[in-house]
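Lay summary. Proteins are chains of building blocks that fold into shapes, and those shapes determine what they do. In this project we predict the shape from the chain. Here is one chain we studied, written as its sequence of building blocks.
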Amino acid sequence: MRDQLTHLARQAQRPHITVQVIPFSAGAHSGMPGSFIVLKFDGGGPDVIHVDSMAGGLFLEKKADIRHYKDKCQHLRAISLSPVDTAALIASLREDR
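And here is the predicted shape, written in a compact code that computers can read:
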């Protein structure tokens, strides 16, 4: 686990990557059912949502779906620790291992 935490800490230092942790104290949240990715493309192409499920990946392209998942993303960011606090948490967990 130490190696994984070290990898996360290194990735968080890259300019195009933001790492944030949702603490257990946040309780149940909209990200719990499964993972998703908002895909944005250079050149102004439309965004696409990729939803991962046990049945396989699903790509969503309807504007309503994209808005729903973008709103979900904003909510998850809001309940997460800040990037600075996340880095401190990862550092403390690495020391404990």
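What the prediction tells us: The chain has two domains: 1-21+82-97, 30-80.
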